[in-house]
Specification:
By secondary structure, the chain is mostly helical. It contains 9 helices and no strands. The longest helix has 29 residues. The protein starts with a helix and ends with a helix.
Length: about 190
């Protein structure tokens, strides 16, 4: 089975997710700058989620540059990842509407945790399918970024019930960690 259909489907789903999120942004009712102030939390939530979807799209692209073939397990793992990412628009709208209240921030954290777990599972299945000498295995031998991300997400989730803005800070740190495409994979691809 080739990877092209998986990549095309994933690109389409991620594009729809971003489209749904942007459609939730409404224009202000008035024409004054002050009319924008109530929309600020929703816009910040949108920016935050757009960055996350962009990070996943970018790293998904890099990840699949290392893949020669996919199997059914990888297809299901990819769908597992897309499922969790597809919940991002609802979580984004909820944290924006509630000005980053504790319960919406905790639900947002669950989505981030599960997306990270799903991505890590997919990486492991790709390595299993490609073999121990695969480009991906050589590139991500430590998985430090993956595990530190999950740790920060769990810390954010745990904190969200008491200090939701600190939880957002934990989520933001992970976004900063992943904002630059995974250099481990780029480096490994250049060596091949």
């Amino acid at each position: 089975m080739t990877k092209g259909r998986l990549e095309a489907f994933s690109d389409g789903v991620l594009a729809v997710i971003i489209t749904i999120m942007v459609l939730e942004l409404k224009v202000p009712e008035g024409s004054d700058w002050a009319n924008l102030k109530p929309l600020l939390p929703k816009f910040l939530a949108y920016i935050f989620s757009f960055i996350y979807i962009g990070i996943y799209w970018n790293n998904h692209h890099h990840l699949f540059q290392t893949v020669k073939k996919v199997n059914g397990s990888i297809l299901w793992a990819n769908l597992h990842l897309l499922f969790w990412l597809s919940l991002m628009p609802a979580a984004t709208e909820w944290i924006g509407d509630t000005h980053f209240a504790k319960n919406p921030v905790s639900i947002y954290g669950i989505g981030l945790i599960m997306s990270a777990v799903a991505y890590t599972i997919m990486e492991n299945l790709i390595i299993k399918n490609e073999g121990e000498n695969s480009t991906l295995k050589e590139a991500i031998h430590s998985k430090f970024k993956e595990y530190i991300s999950i740790l920060f997400y769990v810390l954010g989730f745990s904190t969200s019930f008491f200090y939701p803005y600190i939880a957002i800070g934990f989520y933001y740190i992970v976004a900063l960690i992943w904002l630059i495409p995974d250099k481990r994979i780029e480096k490994s691809l250049k060596e091949d």
